Structure to design on (326 residues):
């Protein structure tokens, strides 16, 4: 067998047989008659046999033509079913979507996201896995999860990360005086002053610590870390007890500040902030269910910023078109 038949040729062939004539089929298909004849000649050449018998009464299929006609109808129908199924799938996305979130983001994003996903996409099963950023990055590389929200842009050819929002980091300290340490004055505090204070920070494999060490290296002012502890809850309690200061996102301490249990200072020169990214694999096609959940994640995150639920955060300009390339 020579070349290949395509769907258009099959449709033309069926129309010619059903109309019993080239001229009627040409009129119905709105195609020039010589073009139709050429298509049939090409098909006959490809299949190495005559498909149509031309008589004074019009055209009739040969035996080979009958075989082609029967199969062509099945193929054309099958294609229509496939197109229909795809359209239905687009309208009502189905499947499982696994999302990885760091604890601090999960705390604020999970519940509104789950509620919105249940309402809008009842046929999607959304699973949320919570872990530190390093683990989440590994999981998405190993295809254990489909999507992630992370603080670090993933530098990787196989992953696409797009920033959604940025949040400010601030200095937090005890309300009372700390032994032997003069509390900073109210208002913004310069980073070089922050670096001198005794700090209680997440351990070295934590995303926030990585970011702070990067700033320290750039400004050649190492941080004076006195205690390493990973949980924000423990950090806040230790600061409240007067064991040191810390640097955390404002959203993580907003409640304690409001209740008068902690003091906070904006950091300047440089301002400290971290961006929040949506990450997905770019080396494989994204199922429709994953695409719509990613868009919903972005929508909910931006909504949390807009309504002031995510305090100290602001939205970053979004790429044109929802599925713009990274």
């Amino acid at each position: 067998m020579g070349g290949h038949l395509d769907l258009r040729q099959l449709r033309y062939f069926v129309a010619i047989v059903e109309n019993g004539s080239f001229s009627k089929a040409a009129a119905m298909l709105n195609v020039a008659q010589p073009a139709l004849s050429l298509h049939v000649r090409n098909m006959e050449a490809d299949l190495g046999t005559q498909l149509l018998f031309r008589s004074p009464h019009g055209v009739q299929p040969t035996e080979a033509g009958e075989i082609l006609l029967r199969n062509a109808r099945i193929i054309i129908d099958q294609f229509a079913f496939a197109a229909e199924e795809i359209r239905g799938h687009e309208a009502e996305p189905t499947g499982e979507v696994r999302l990885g979130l760091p604890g601090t983001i999960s705390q604020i994003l999970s519940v509104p996201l789950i509620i919105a996903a249940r309402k809008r996409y009842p046929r999607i099963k959304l699973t949320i896995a919570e872990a530190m950023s390093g683990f989440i990055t590994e999981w998405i590389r190993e295809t254990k999860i489909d999507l992630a929200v992370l603080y670090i842009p993933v530098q990787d050819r196989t992953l696409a990360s797009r920033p959604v929002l940025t949040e400010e980091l601030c200095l937090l300290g005890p309300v009372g005086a700390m032994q032997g340490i003069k509390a900073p004055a109210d208002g913004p505090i310069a980073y070089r002053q922050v670096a001198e204070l005794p700090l209680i920070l997440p351990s070295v494999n934590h995303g926030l610590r990585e970011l702070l060490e990067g700033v320290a290296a750039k400004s050649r002012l190492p941080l004076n870390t006195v205690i390493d502890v990973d949980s924000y809850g423990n950090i806040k309690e230790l600061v409240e007890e007067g064991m040191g200061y810390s640097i955390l996102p404002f959203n993580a301490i907003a409640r304690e500040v409001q209740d008068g249990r902690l003091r906070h200072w904006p950091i300047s020169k440089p301002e400290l902030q971290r961006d929040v990214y949506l990450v997905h694999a770019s080396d494989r096609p994204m199922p429709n269910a994953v695409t719509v959940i990613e868009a919903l994640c972005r929508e909910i995150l931006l909504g949390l910023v807009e309504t002031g639920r995510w305090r100290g955060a602001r939205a970053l300009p979004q790429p044109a078109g929802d599925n713009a390339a990274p």
Q: What stands out?
A: The chain is about 45% helix and 25% strand. The first helix runs from residue 7 to 19. Residues 322-326 have pLDDT under 50 and may be disordered. Residues 7-91 form a domain with the Arc Repressor Mutant, subunit A fold (CATH 1.10.10.10).
